[in-house]
Amino acid sequence: MTPITDVEGRRLTLTNLDKVLYPATGTTKGEVLHYYAATAAAPLLAHLDDRPVSFLRYPDGPEGQRFFTKNPPPGTPDWVRTARVQRHEGENSRQVVVQDLASLVWAANLVVEFHTPQWRADAPRMADRLVFDLDPGAPATVVECCAVGLWLRERLAADGLSAYGKTSGSKGLHLLVPLEPAPSDEVSAYAKGLALEAQNALPELVVHRMTRALRPGKVFVDFSQNAAAKTTATPYTLRARAEPTVSAPVTWEEIEGCGAPGELVFLAGDMAARLERYGDLLGPLFDADLARPLPG
């Protein structure tokens, strides 16, 4: 029998709850839904609030088919909010906005990673945060990403900006910076400039271009996710990796002290204790008093 549950007055049909999605840990779909509904719901919903969401779907687990979608999936309930999004000049589409627990559980039942832009649906293409995706090229690891992240923190501070970190949930590190809303193209240009500065200051460690041949042993400072059309893994989302890794907020002390890649890997089962200890380490992103204008 397919379970039907009530979430905040919405009837949801949940499927294949005993299906193992992460064979490495034996994590089932039911456990994934429990993580989203019981552990991550409050902070994740805050970061999803009013942001059009893109889904990386992996219904048969990370080793199965994976596909990225921005359109509302077939069968999306009429009570799930959508927002109009301009993807190309003169072309409007709609995307899901996960605004409440029922929408979150409905989306999680599809088995997805959550990805969101740096702008909100009520102010499209006006970024209220800046992001750097620090992506290591083997044999570099997140340890090298941390070194680059520390350099960027100091450089951003020189411009009056505060940075906060989270793991990508994959191999790297993300830095997020609260901003007074600014056009995405201006934020992208500023971020590109800092990526180039990082490369010039740390030429043995940093590359600011995506070209694969340039990346072995270095950290790619990806500034491109500040573009209006791009998205970044939302804080607290699970990732389609071998284990149920989380894109988890981390402290600067953890970044400074990272000496091995495994020290910054967090699984779904780790997050309840971290939230109890720290709360949402990315909470400052919502503090209007900490948002600063884009330099220049």
Model description:
With 296 residues, this protein is an alpha+beta fold. It folds into 2 domains: 4-121, Alpha-Beta Complex (DNA primase, PRIM domain), CATH 3.90.920.10; 124-290, 2-Layer Sandwich (Alpha-Beta Plaits). The protein is built from 7 helices and 16 strands. The chain has helices spanning 29-39, 41-48, 101-109, 142-158, 184-201, 252-257, 271-278; strands spanning 4-7, 10-13, 20-22, 27-28, 54-57, 67-69, 82-88, 91-96, 112-116, 126-136, 164-167, 173-183, 206-207, 219-222, 232-233, 249-250. The protein has a 6-stranded mixed beta sheet. The chain has a 4-stranded antiparallel beta sheet with strand order 6-5-9-15, covered by helices on one side. It has a two-stranded antiparallel sheet with strand order 1-2. A hairpin with a 5-residue loop joins strand 11 and strand 12. One of its GO terms (molecular function) is DNA ligase (ATP) activity. Residues 28-281 form the DNA ligase D polymerase domain. Its EC number is 6.5.1.1.
